[in-house]
Amino acid sequence: MTKQSIETYRGYADLPPLVSLHTMREATTVGLSVSQSVERLKRIHWALKQLHKIFVARLTSMPVYEIKMAFSLHAYYCSEHVEDFASRVGEMRQPPHGLDVTPHAALDQMFEEIMAAPDKEALLLGLYEIAVPAVTRALEHLMSDTNRLFDHATYRICRLTLMEWRDVQEYGDEAVRCLVSAEQKTDLQPWLAELNAMLRAAGDLDGREPKSGEEVHRRFSTKPFKYDPVPQRDERFQDPYNMGVNAEAMLFDPEVEPLPKTLMLYFKRMREIDVPEMMASILTEAKDKPWKYYRDMTRQLWDEARHAMMGETGFVSVGIDWKKIPFNFTWSLGLNTKLSAKERHAVLYTIEQGLMPKKTGKEYEWEIAMATTTPLTCLIQDFDWADEVLHARIGREWIVPEIGTQVEAMKFGDEAWTKLLLDWEKWREDGLTEHRNWWPELYQDACRSWGMEPDLKLLAYNTSYESIRADLKEIAVESPFPHGTA
Ligand SMILES: [Fe+2]
Ligand SMILES: [Fe+2]
Ligand SMILES: [Fe+2]
To answer: Please, which residues have CB within 8 angstroms of residue 452's CB and are 6 or more apart in sequence?
Structure first.
């Protein structure tokens, strides 16, 4: 075949050859070997794993709500793609695949530096200006360097990953634009340059460049990273110890008409911010689990973040300023600081199993939503319930075998739960909160938006969590922590 005929080569009746993956010219000239492709896949796999770790470990102490939510999504994307890249390596090579082996020390230094970033500004810059673009570069190069026909599965996972990865980059760019000042950026330039030097020392993230051989220096990661289990929220979240309004007691009261209950449903959903804050601690402390464990748990973590944003959507739809409502963080704070990871997971499991019965569970909440006849509330509760089915399964798969039988796991979870004394009165004495009853104001605001007069009896609603916990068991001497959602 002459050179000319490669350029003009076509299929039957002028059909494009090679299913349009390549022109014949490209197909005959482009390509990496299997070992080159595997090496790059392993590096990307490693990078996604490290990024997953950072997004999760920095989520609890990340004060900005939107970034907490973004970290949940970005961690979830990483967890899915780690699996894809590992599988592709496994398709091409016999084990051992060496997927748990650091590809290059300088690469680890870069991720450890970002993990240890001293504040949110440095963290955002390290993530979204250095690490995330380095992954994008690696994906783009692998797609253009490997042969789309010979190494099609690699090409495909890079292409699909890149689609989501560009969203990660886009949101990251916005986060930097909104939260990092020009001055802060200038101050951090030397550190960012050091991170770039680390990448060069590793031959870039994917190892395709020659290793620079330059010396690199740690700035923030000279000591091992210590996870901060104390949840932080931004200044819009006021009065985090407030447990002055018992949402469940109203929801389960048949005397109360459905429409005002939407507000309690939105409240319960948005309060679910505390679940990612807590799950991040389990994930960060869980060592040497199969990747499927991290993937399943991160999926759930992201679902819980979605539920919080579903609640936020609900409030905005009725024109409610949710900043007036205290979303307490006492559940994630208590679990993260007083229980072991196994106990925390068991508590989560016990709560989620408790959401299955019809009387006080997800189905009942959905029925309330249906009775309100507001389509958005129905949709929120529809998916809140659906997600819970998956979460109960994730619990059955991972925490139950760690403890024994399902009954033993529930018992273990319940006992762990009772370890957390509700310091309702003490928080007030200590001046942490007044347990202000925020219901009347919220209800009045909503009534204005609905164009209706408040029902005076409902306006006077004043039931706190002092003596009734969220699953409606009377609080005993050793009171389990009130929290009805997970
Ligand atoms: Fe939920
Ligand atoms: Fe939940
Ligand atoms: Fe859940």
So the answer is: none
Give me the mean pLDDT over the 369-387 stretch: 95
Give the H or E element holding residue 376.
helix 375-403
Q: For residue 114, how far is its CA from the centre of ligand 3 (angstroms)?
A: 30
Give the position of tokens 């994917």.
Answer: 206
Q: 269 C-alpha vs ligand 2 centroid, how far in Å?
A: 8
| Cα 42 from Cα 138, distance rounded (Å) | 11
Transcribe 175-220 into DSSP letters: HHHHH--HHHHHHHHHHHHHHHHHHHHTTSTTS-SPP-------SS
Together in a domain, 405 and 269 = yes
pLDDT one-digit tens code per residue, 34-93:
999 999 999 999 999 999 999 999 999 999 999 999 999 999 999 999 999 999 999 999
DSSP classification of residue 130 = I
- Boundary residue ending a domain (168, 201, 234): 201
Spacing of C-alpha 402 from chain mean position: 23
Within 10 angstroms of residue 155's Cβ, the number of other Cβ atoms is 20
Query: What is the per-residue pLDDT across 106-148, written as a single tens digit (0 to 9) for each?
Result: 999 999 999 999 999 999 999 999 999 999 999 999 999 999 9
The CATH number linked to 417 is 1.20.910
Q: How confident is the model at residue 294 (pLDDT cuts 50, 70, 90)?
A: very high
In the predicted structure, residue 1 carries a pLDDT above the cut 60: no
- Residue 130: inside a domain, yes or no? yes
Ligand 2 centroid–CA 32 distance in Å is 45
Cβ proximity of 37 and 91 under 8 Å: no
| 83 within some domain | yes
Number of helices and strands (H, E) in the chain? 21, 0
Distance from C-alpha of 296 to C-alpha of 398, rounded to nearest angstrom:
9
385 C-alpha vs ligand 1 centroid, how far in Å?
Answer: 7
Number of domains in the chain: 2
Task: Please report whether residue 44 resides in a domain.
Answer: yes
